[in-house]
Specification:
The complex is a heterodimer. Chain A is of the alpha/beta class. Chain A has helices spanning 3-16, 19-30, 66-69, 109-126, 144-154, 186-198, 211-215, 238-262, 276-288; strands spanning 49-54, 76-80, 87-92, 130-133, 138-141, 175-180, 202-209, 222-225, 232-235, 266-271. Chain A is built from 9 helices and 10 strands. Chain B folds into 5 domains: 95-217 and 596-612, von Willebrand factor, type A domain (Rossmann fold, 3-Layer(aba) Sandwich), CATH 3.40.50.410; 218-310, Sandwich (Immunoglobulin-like); 315-516, 3-Layer(aba) Sandwich (Rossmann fold); 528-581, no CATH class; 678-920, Rossmann fold, CATH 3.40.50.12140. Classes of the chains: A alpha/beta, B alpha/beta.
């Protein structure tokens, strides 16, 4: 049984290998967005000064601001700005279909999805929010250590062909981010979204697609296989399928957008051929949006 | 071999393979292209989609056709097809291949060689021995029959000859024939008497086949000069409809490059055998013509060489007194011009310009001294065959030329001063001419009574003098002397070329003498008797293709043989040079005629065209390869591999494989063009620019630059001259003509200018430029004789064309061009500044303070006052170098500046101020 620690070790190292680059890339991406203050613009619990107001009867004596009160005959209390932290839960599709990249110079969809998710998590963490993963894998917490843990969990690859969003263990009234290519079963997405809507969870759907999936640049006699090879489709003239494929893809996107609209979510399609920061900006503003 | 009229097959059974093609069609048709596997996550969206067309699982018909064609090409190719198979009736017995090999053959010689090779190939494949004989180059005895392959190897070395075959030799050779053989005769298509004899002899031995080219034969007769035009007669052998040929006149252009000088069409009337072209050309062009050619015909017969009979001599006239303003009749060249204009082309210009034109004759009228460079060039020209004719005159008599030692450019030594006879102050009578000796070139010319000589230069008695005299006076003194130098000659007339010293130029004898001296001649073809015994060396000879070639070491030809004008092996057509003239021998002479061959009807005559066997195997296999390559592309396109992510790579590999070539080597970088001195020229000419000669000593150059800068500023402030920034120039490389004025500080270690630079400087000085030489040594040693700079200046000036000098006279125009000056100081204040000497006969007009020095700008000013230092200022105008002491020094600087202003004014306005002496006369004429 001498192999076991060794394989464990090497496996762990292989697993940890992408972590620093992933984190670094996500951090790098996150610096492109400047975080505004997360204040609520009204008095409440918080650390920063909001306003002075005359002391009322219900105010405890210890709350009186002596420095201000000494300037006049009245007694003043210092109100703080109301600051609350939100919980954001992230689900990233780690299935085999995400590992597709049509050209060598393009990142795979999974890479782009992880970077996007982690970068938005880092931004949120910096803004003082609590960030976690869905499915009870990582409960929402604050702090930088959470990002490292998230990175470790996101680096795993799953073996199933297509992934489905996991809506278990999500906190009520929190926010969520689902990143996937959404090429798998649409019903699973619908179920997850309705569950989220039940719990009053708002969030964003980010569909990451490869340019080849958007353009279908194929021709001739071809056998198309899914990434694990479990599904296949043979055609004699791939070019003839292009229009119908694109039609189906458009309908899939419409369906996703409609689902999102019904449940109060935001939907966005991102291509790996485009810049990641545009998608990050969209994602960040989608999460900032008040419902 | 199985034949289908134009095509035959080497292995016809292989063609049965074509039957397999339909089977292949069915097989290939059923097999669709192999599918391509692609990973694609979007497959979920594709599930359930079906293909619209169900036929694409079969190979498309056009791809099938492509492959069928490729396979068919391979099968046919290996079956060994041959285009135009040769299956002549094989003859038997030896074969004699007979070639005329004359100039008329040269027009399609390569095709004739092909035909000979084809005949020998056939003979070889039939196992017949063969022999190859050229009629213009007959072997000593009859044909020697060898293996035809061995004979074929000698075909490439066969060369046509630029002349006709010798009839006597042909008759002799025909007599030696023996044995039985067939003859294959490649005729050149020109009728000759010798053919009948030979044909009869050959027919006695076996069958004769004649091959004759249908291309017409054209030839040119020698050009003649008639009534101011050149007349050339063109001949053709075959009569027929009207035809036009173009005749080019070829010659050297002024740059010495051979080019077409004129081109005219010649039209043969229908059924006419001859046509004449009259070409009227300016003499300049006519003299350059070296030959006439029929355009596009490479044959010696189509070339007519010209010789001296068409030429007019080019005569350059130069006289000593260049800028004299004199009466026309006193011009030393006037009578020469009158005598020569009708019969020669005259060239004017400076000696160096004239030498470039390489005239036949140069006449120097009373030119005494030449610069070292010029006399060297002149000597080279004479030795290369030029004729130099000199006339005496006051200058020559006064100079030291050929006084102590014989000048290489003079035939004799001269005594001091010459003599004057029959003048007011002498005792004797004007002398008449003595009759010419028999060995004089003037022998036979009648001497008019009225030719008398008043004055002449006298030859120094000398052992060689007697040989050199070709004309003398009645008292025995030489009048004309001559010597040979190299290939050229130098002739001296001991009198002037105008009527000042003798009446000779006024007489008709003068013209005749010039003609005898070959100054002006139009030679006619000498007759046979005159040619007898002379020897003529070939200079250039024509080959059969009409190309002029150097004669090399060909032996000379006797004059009598040359006069026959019939080229043969011992006298190829070309240019032959005799003692004093050149004669052209052309393929045709003035009496030649051309006519086509007329063979008896029994002799088969075939055209030159022969179809050769062409194996088609390679072509067919190549076509199959191309088709298969196309098939690769088509298959890739059909299976979608020419699209999609890696399509570019695939396509590149396929294209590279088809091209079968590596990427071409990178083109060499274009050479960076040499810097164009255009900017320099623009900078130098857009304004007046003062220039100095760079000495290579940085301090001196800086001082020159600063000095000219200061002077330019002063000029700008005080005068209407507004110079631009001064420039430093190098006479070796820079163009001098842009600058009116050069300041040349002389340093002791300066390099002497090169030959080219001297030529440039001399041209500069002659064309009105001025150089201020400054030895900067205050002329301490007086006359610049022994200071190092002075010696250097002498060395530099030796090669320059500098006129006699004198210290600036009181009334020199330099003293009053802008300021009135009598001193010309710089940093030093020496008085010795030298300029061109005034003419000896300059006279002060009545009541005028100045002499009438009506000449040009002095080309040089020489001094040692270090003017640049006195002129030098920095950019703010502060002087750089202290001059003298106190106010006196400042005064000296001011005078130096004024000298600079005067100098530049003098350069730019010339003798304008000198003309002021005429102001009273002008005012007088205006009536005031």
């Amino acid at each position: 049984m001498t192999e076991r620690p060794l394989t464990l070790r090497s496996g762990a190292e292989a697993l940890a290998a992408p972590l620093p680059p992933l984190l670094a890339e996500a951090e790098h991406l996150a610096t492109t967005v400047i975080v505004g203050d997360h204040g609520r613009r009204r008095a409440g619990l918080g650390d920063t000064f909001w306003q002075y107001r005359p002391a009322q009867y219900h105010d405890e004596r210890r709350h009186i601001d002596w420095r201000r009160s000494a300037k006049s005959d009245n007694q003043f209390v210092q109100d703080k700005e109301w600051q609350i932290a939100q919980s954001v839960q992230v689900w990233v599709d780690q299935s085999a279909s995400m590992s597709y990249a049509s050209r060598d110079d393009l990142p795979s969809k999974a890479d782009r999805a992880r970077v996007l998710a982690l970068a938005s998590a880092i931004l949120l963490l910096r803004g003082g929010e609590r960030v976690g993963l869905t499915g009870g894998l990582l409960p929402p917490k604050r702090g930088e250590a959470q990002a490292a843990q998230m990175a470790a969990l996101l680096s795993e690859d799953h073996t199933d062909d297509f992934g489905a969003p996991v809506a278990d263990g999500m906190l009520h009234h929190s926010r969520a981010v689902f990143v996937s290519d959404f090429l798998g079963d649409i019903d699973a997405v619908e179920r997850a979204l309705s569950e989220a809507a039940d719990r009053d969870i708002r969030g964003a759907l980010v569909q990451v697609l490869d340019p080849a999936e958007e353009a279908f640049p194929f021709d001739g006699r071809t056998i198309f296989e899914s990434m694990t090879g479990a599904m296949r489709h043979e055609t004699l003239k791939a070019a003839d399928l292009r229009d119908r494929y694109l039609d189906r893809l458009a309908r899939r996107k419409d369906r996703l957008a409609e689902l999102a609209r019904l449940s109060g979510w935001q939907f966005h399609t991102h291509h790996t051929g485009d810049s990641a920061s545009a998608a990050l900006l969209w994602l960040y503003s989608a999460l900032e949006r008040r419902s | 071999m199985w034949s289908l009229d134009p095509i035959a097959f080497g292995a016809p059974w292989l063609l049965l393979g074509l039957i397999a093609l339909p089977i292949l069609w069915l097989l290939l048709r059923a097999v669709p292209p192999a599918p391509l596997r692609r990973r694609f996550p979007g497959v979920t969206l594709l599930l359930g989609l079906s293909d619209d067309e169900s036929q694409t699982d079969r190979t498309p018909w056009w791809l099938l056709l492509l492959r069928m064609l490729a396979v068919a090409a391979v099968i046919t190719g290996f079956a060994g097809p041959v285009l135009n198979p040769q299956d002549d009736q094989p003859g038997s017995g030896p074969l004699l291949v007979l070639v005329d090999g004359t100039w008329a053959d040269a027009r399609d010689w390569p095709r004739r060689l092909d035909r000979i090779e084809a005949a020998l190939d056939n003979a070889a494949s039939d196992g017949r021995p063969a022999a190859l004989v050229q009629l213009t180059d007959l072997p000593a005895e009859g044909p020697v029959f060898q293996d035809a392959q061995a004979v074929a190897q000698g075909v490439a070395g066969l060369v046509p000859r630029p002349h006709d075959p010798d009839p006597a030799a042909i008759a002799a050779w025909a007599a030696t024939l023996s044995g039985d053989f067939d003859t294959f005769w490649l005729s050149d298509g020109v009728s000759r008497d010798s053919r009948a004899v030979l044909l009869a002899a050959l027919e006695n031995r076996g069958s004769v086949r004649i091959f004759e080219s249908p291309r017409p034969v054209f030839a040119l007769k020698p050009p003649r000069y008639e009534d101011g035009a050149i007349s050339i007669e063109a001949l053709r052998a075959q009569t027929g409809p009207d035809t036009e040929i173009r005749v080019d006149a070829i010659g050297l252009d002024p740059a010495g490059v051979e080019r077409r000088l004129a081109s005219e069409g010649v039209i043969f009337e229908p059924d006419a055998k001859a046509a004449t072209l009259d070409l009227s050309l300016p003499p300049e062009l006519r003299n350059r013509i070296t030959r006439f050619e029929v355009q596009g015909l490479s044959s010696a017969g189509a070339v007519a060489l010209t010789d001296d009979a068409l030429k007019r001599r080019e005569v350059a006239l130069l006289s000593g007194g260049n800028d004299r303003e004199g009466l026309e009749l006193l011009d030393p060249l006037h009578y020469l011009r009158q005598a020569l204009t009708p019969s020669a082309d005259l060239v004017d210009g400076t000696l160096s310009d004239v030498l470039l034109a390489n005239p036949d004759v140069i006449i120097l009228a009373d030119v005494a001294t030449l610069s070292e460079l010029e006399s060297q060039d002149l000597q080279t020209w004479v030795e290369a065959g030029g004729l130099l004719v000199r006339f005496a005159g006051p200058r020559l008599a006064a100079s030291d030329v050929s006084r102590d030692a014989e000048d290489p450019l003079m035939p004799v030594r001269l005594r001091v001063g010459g003599r004057s006879i029959g003048g007011a102050m002498s005792w004797g009578e004007p002398k008449a001419l003595a009759p010419f000796d028999a060995d004089s070139p003037f022998f036979g010319l009648a001497i008019p009574d009225d030719v008398a000589v008043n004055a002449q230069v006298i030859a120094q008695p000398d052992p060689t003098l007697a040989d050199r005299v070709i004309a003398g006076l009645a008292d025995g003194t030489p009048l004309v002397t001559r010597k040979d130098t190299g290939q050229g000659r130098i002739v001296l007339f001991h009198v002037t070329a105008n009527a000042e010293w003798s009446t000779l130029p006024l007489s008709g004898l003068f013209v005749q003498m010039l003609e005898r001296l070959a100054v002006s001649t139009r030679p006619a073809m000498p007759d046979m008797e005159a040619m007898e015994g002379t020897s003529w060396m070939p200079e250039d000879v024509l080959d059969a293709f009409g190309v002029l070639q150097d004669a090399g070491a060909l032996p000379g030809v006797d004059g009598a043989r040359l006069a026959q004008m019939t080229p043969a092996a011992d006298m190829p057509p070309g240019l032959y040079a005799g003692e004093d003239r050149r004669i052209a021998v052309n393929v045709l002479n003035a009496d030649s005629t051309l006519s086509a061959t007329a063979w008896p009807a029994r002799i088969p005559v075939e055209g030159l065209d022969v179809v050769r066997e062409t194996p088609l195997k390679g072509w067919l296999l190549g076509a199959a390869l191309v088709l298969l390559m196309l098939d690769i592309l088509a298959a890739l396109a059909l299976s979608g591999r020419l699209r999609g992510p890696r399509a570019g790579v695939t396509a590149a590999i396929v294209v590279l494989a088809m091209a079968g070539l590596p990427t071409p080597p990178q083109a060499q970088e274009a050479e960076s063009p040499a810097p164009v001195p255009e900017e320099f020229a623009v900078a130098a000419t857009s304004n007046v620019v003062l220039a100095y000669v760079q000495t290579g000593n940085p301090r001196v150059d800086e001082m020159s630059e600063a000095g000219l800068y200061g002077l330019s500023n002063i000029l700008f402030q005080r005068t209407s001259i507004e110079p631009a920034m001064p420039m430093g120039i190098d006479p070796e490389t820079d163009e001098l003509a842009f600058f009116p004025f050069l300041y040349w500080p002389v340093t002791a270690d300066q390099d002497l200018p090169s030959r080219e630079a001297y030529a440039k400087l001399n041209r500069y000085l002659r064309s009105g430029g001025m150089i201020l030489f400054d030895t900067r040594d205050a002329d301490l040693a007086r006359f610049g004789s022994s200071s190092p700079e002075g010696q250097r200046l002498q060395a530099i000036a030796r090669g320059l064309d500098i006129p006699p000098l004198e210290p600036i006279p009181q009334d020199h125009v330099l003293t009053r061009t802008f300021y009135l000056l009598q001193d010309f100081p710089g940093r030093h204040a020496s008085r010795d500044v030298w300029v061109e000497a005034a003419p000896a006969d300059a006279q002060a007009a009545e009541g005028m303070p100045f002499r009438d020095l009506n000449d040009g700008v002095t080309p040089v000013v020489i001094g040692g006052n270090d003017w640049a230092a006195a002129w030098a200022t920095d950019e703010t105008g502060n002087p750089l170098v202290p001059i003298g002491r106190g106010m006196a020094g400042e005064r000296q600087r001011e005078i130096a500046m004024r000298f600079g202003v005067n100098l530049i004014m003098h350069v730019l306005t010339g003798n304008y101020k000198s003309d002021q002496v005429h102001v009273p006369a002008l005012l007088d004429r205006l009536g005031q």
